[in-house]
Amino acid sequence: MQALETGAAQQLPPGAVPPTQAAVAEPLPTLPGTPAGTVVPPLASTVAVAAEASPVPATNNEARWRNEQLDRQLFPQLTSYFTNSAELYWYDPVNQQHVLLGTIGGVFQAQAQFKLVDNGADALEIPYEVNKSFGLTALSPALVTRIMVAGYSDWIETYVILTPEMVPL
Question: What is the pLDDT of residues 3-60, one digit of tens each?
């Protein structure tokens, strides 16, 4: 075995320390004002803190939409209204944005009335068949993708701001 160790030492690259020679450890650093030979534990660069995160309630997209509505009153049946012109909005629950879909006019049917959380405005909730209802048939592909990502397909709940010129029929 001795011959193997010696042979292995001879095969080391130039400048390498043979394994039989012990490496000399460098002295530990000392803090100013501490006696020589005092062992000072290394300072931690970070402090680990264990904290329990409070659970965040899981909110689905439908719940996010409902959270945008105050005092929602579901009509017993669809109620017809007439308007000359109204902006139709959809609330994107994924991006949490109110998105203008377009302008509608004429007769529409509402299923509920509520107040918007953001500004307290009265609004009517209107079912909208994507790219079919109210003559709004050219939503951008990006917007249709947003609707699908939010978990909807053919029908979404949209809204208009209720104005005095909107009359129930």
Answer: 444 444 445 555 555 555 444 455 555 555 656 665 555 555 555 555 555 555 557 8
- With tokens 């000072």, the residue in question is 40
Please state, in angstroms and rounded to a whole number, the distance separating the CA atoms of residues 64 and 12: 69
* Spatial contact of 167 and 130, defined as CB atoms under 8 Å apart: no
Q: Please count the CA atoms within 13 angstroms of the CA of 78 that sit on its side-chain side.
A: 8
CA distance linking residue 87 with residue 158, whole number of Å: 10
Q: Which of 162, 146, 61 is nearest to 101 (CA)?
A: 146
Q: Tokens for 111, please give them.
A: 């299923």
Q: Which two tokens stand for residue 79?
A: 């109620």
For 108, the token pair is 């529409």
Coil vs helix vs strand at 146? helix
Classify residue 126 as exposed, middle or buried by CB count within 10 Å of its CB (0-12, 13-18, 19+). buried
Threshold 0.85, pTM exceeds? no
